[in-house]
Amino acid sequence: MKKFFLVVLITILCSFSLFSSSTSSEENDEFFNEILISDIPVVYGDDNFRERILARTEGKRDPIGLVLTGGSARACAHIGVLKYLDEIGVEPDFIVSNSMGSIIGMLYAAGVKPDKIEELLAVGDISSYFSLTLPTTGGFLSPSGFKTLVDYIVGKDLRVEDTEIPIMIVCDDLVSKREVRITEGPFSDVLIGSFALPVYFSPYQYNGHLLIDGGVISLAPINAAYDYTDTVILSTTFYDADTINLINPVTILNASFDIGKRQNASRDLKKYSSLILIRCDVEKYSFMAFNSASEMAEIGYNSAKKEESKLSALYKSEKKESENNEIIAAKINDTKNNLKYFGRLKSSAPSTLLGVNFVAMNSKLSPRYLKNSMTTGFEYRFLISDFDMALIFGLGSNSQNLSSSEMFTTFGGSISYYPLSFLRTKVEGYIDFLRPKSAFDPFINLRESIDAYLYKDDEISVIANQSIEYANDYSSHGSGSGIIFSLRAQCEYKMENNLFGCDAGYLLTGDSIVFENPRNYMDVSLKDEYNFTPSIYVSGSIRGRFSIDGKGSVPVFVSDNFTSNTLLYGASALKTNSSVYNLFADATFGYKFKKAPTFGEFLILDNLSTATYFSSLTNKENGFMFSLGLEVKTDLSLIGLITLPTTFRVGYEYGRNNENHITASISFTSEF
Fold it and tell me: Which residues share a beta bridge with 670?
């Protein structure tokens, strides 16, 4: 009996072993087969793509293919190439693109003229297009704002297979490890997926694939174009900056990807002798240099012109004006104005944006008087037509004086309405709670404002503001309630080496929401910055705030730019002094860095400057107070897409009652 059980046990074990070996062998064969086919691209919509190309040529000539490479901001050079092709009457019969080249190519294929694409990308601050988000789906930047913009311009229902010029987008799939070529699908979704740079943006989900930026593997998808024609134009925007820090971990990772891309590009460039190569000389530009879009477009135009003899020999098509040209042009002009005045996005259909946002304590457009803190948190935005609604929940911090700074929880929201591109009405409110010294006693801030640009161009801006701001501190040590009504006008004039500004305003304050114990003030200021050289500058400002009715209690606000360990700001300052005037003076002498330092080309210190500063406050109650020290100013930027103007000061304060202190402050300023 024992022998029988032993035989049965051995038989079972052998069976499991054989089954396991068979299963393992099958899995190994499947994995090996996947490797063998990984160089075979997956193409979506190939038959229709070929039919569309054939319809353009009628089978009478070889189609003209145009390949647009990636390169982030450098791909703006393709705009100039397209301008030149339009000028000489050469229209591609199809376009193949990847990465940032797909943004240029897809907009052009959809009927947007090159000069309008340039206007769209050269508008200046593009941070409205992108927002920070939690990397729950693989990326920490959300392009939902850019998607909203594209939907508004070309229409939310447009599909890739319906563009005026056939276009193929080349991506790479994280699942199958194969190249995926897309010629059909929702236009704006495919466009967003085309530049899904790993880590920065989340992979794009398409037909079971997780697609990433095709430029990660291939610098130039030339092979895809030669599958449809023997006449191919290649516009390149390669990258070869010699200032990259190759011992930085992030740049090492980026540069290591570049090795394989260059080798692949080298093989392809040598393979096709008939290729018409337009080498856009933008290699020295950073991949974040979106503020140089027009400059790079001009380089692209001149680079294409160098190949005039080859390009002029190509088939000249009769340029048909798109039926949507006027509509698209009007929408782009509308977008330009919206971005020019308030940096806002307009959505023709309901659109939601979710991300991480910063609400700064100061605004260049319209100062906040009674709220001394900034907020960092999760923001939900809802856009429809001329309305922009937002909710934010996160952490607040009053860091105008780091020695007494504290953090707390904040919940807030805002509703903005833009009846005209240069006019905004806004209502906003914030509740600060769980403050270290106040537990559950909240601080409430409510604000209504109307902001209007009376005039704005590259040199001059004139702005008028009206606001009512209310604050109430419910803590036992708080200042209670206060309210301010303000009317203000400001102007700024930029000259070659000079920046001059002035503003004047009227303030009416009260101790309650019904303006109990009203007090009236006049506010005037002048400022000037002079650049001796592109790097060396001096700036100065003076501000006076005076009691009109002689009641005193002239307040000090964070926006006055005077840092003190002993003064009270905002709502706390409305009832705590008897001064009938405040005189502020501020002067800096500094150095502007020509090149923006970067940390792995991820965090950029744009417009970095260092300076010595002198800041003073004179009034009847405290006499003469001053602060002297070091100032560092920069626009903190994440890969050139999200920007936060930041000022850090550390110095020595000679305060009231001969009290001396070391002061330190950090402030963030929003543009709007």
Answer: 363
Q: What is the DSSP string of 138-202?
A: SBSEE-HHHHHHHHHHH-TT-BGGGSSS-EEEEEEETTT-SEEEE-SSBHHHHHHHHT--TBTSP
Instruction: Report the Cα 606 to chain-centroid distance in Å.
Output: 13
- Indicate left, alpha or beta for 480 from its phi (over 0: left) and psi (-120 to 50: alpha): left
In angstroms, rounded to a whole number, what is the distance separating the alpha carbons of residues 358 and 361? Answer: 9
Nearest to 663 by CA among 605, 617, 607, 604: 617
Question: Pairing between strand 231-236 and 64-68?
Answer: parallel
Q: What is the pTM of this model?
A: 0.83
- State the amino acid at position 576 in one-letter form: T
pLDDT, residue 339, reads 84
**Span 38-76, pLDDT tens digits:** 788 999 999 999 999 999 999 899 999 999 998 888 889
pLDDT digits (tens, 9 = 90+) for 331-343: 888 888 888 888 8
| pLDDT number for residue 27 | 57
In one letter, which amino acid is 31? Answer: F
Q: What pLDDT score was predicted for residue 292?
A: 82
DSSP state of 439: B
3-class DSSP string for 317-377 = CCCCCCCCHHHHHHHHHHHHHHHHHHCCCCEEEEEEEEEEEEECCEECCCCCCCCCCEEEE
Q: Are 71 and 265 in contact (CB under 8 A)?
A: no
Half-sphere exposure of residue 327: CA atoms within 13 angstroms, side-chain side:
9
Res. 247: pLDDT tops 70: no
Helix (H, G, I), strand (E, B) or coil at 640: coil
Q: What is the DSSP letter of 435?
A: B
Q: Is residue 24 exposed (0-12), middle (13-18) or buried (19+ Cβ within 10 Å)?
A: exposed
Place of tokens 């704002």: 145
Alpha-carbon distance of 308 to 313, in angstroms, equals: 8
The mean pLDDT value of the chain amounts to 85
